[in-house]
Amino acid sequence: MRRKIPESTLPKLNRSQMITADGLQKLREEHDHLWKVVRPDVTAKVSWAASLGDRSENADYHYNKKRLREIDSRIRYLRKCIDNFKVIHYHPHQEGKVMFGAWVEVENIDRGLKKRFRIVGYEELIGNKDYISMDSPLAKALLNKKTGDEAIVKTPAGEFRWKIHRIEYEKGGASDF
User: Fold this and answer.
1) Mind listing the pLDDT tens digit for each residue in 127-163?
2) What is the 3-state secondary structure (H, E, C) of 135-175?
3) Topology of 17-87 in CATH?
4) What residue stretches are annotated with the Transcription elongation factor GreA/GreB N-terminal domain (predicted)?
5) What pTM was estimated for this model as a whole?
6) Is the N end or the C end of the chain the one with fewer CB atoms within 10 Å?
């Protein structure tokens, strides 16, 4: 039997705990789906497999028990995120500056490469190719800059200069960007 490690001794991740309202809504939807749909289904499969008798060589039982532990772990993690993350809403003082939640269009001056992305929290990155973490070197270099400003980004591959061409925020709906 495994010894449970108290949560207070678990390492804390070195990333921001901010999230957009849309990001929080997606976490809630995932939590609700896991709790109301997926978990009951897997629990029923575990019960069915257990009813067959000998569990020592019952692959269905072992697989679904493992899956149930993974689901429960994800549900706990999502609950912590939902309870502890700070939701950052749009505010007019953000206009004209790169801040959390901004859609930014930039150009790599050294390579002529243009990019468009939204600066968000880590939990919003999965499945969103146009999002970057606010903890990334590029986002950190761009924060509080204005349209027309340049930022120097230091990466393991070297230093790159980026020029900001456009900044926009979602104001309760989708961006026109």
Assistant:
1) 889 999 999 999 999 999 999 999 999 888 889 999 9
2) CCHHHHHHCCCECCCEEEEEECCEEEEEEEEEEECCCCCCC
3) Helix Hairpins (1.10.287)
4) 18-87
5) 0.78
6) N
